[in-house]
Amino acid sequence: SSPDPVRAAVTEPTPAAVGEPLYGVYRVRSGDYLGRIAAQFGTSVATLREINDIRGSTIQIGQSIRYPQAAN
Question: In angstroms, rounded to a whole number, what is the distance separating the alpha carbons of residues 44 and 35?
Answer without folding.
Answer: 7
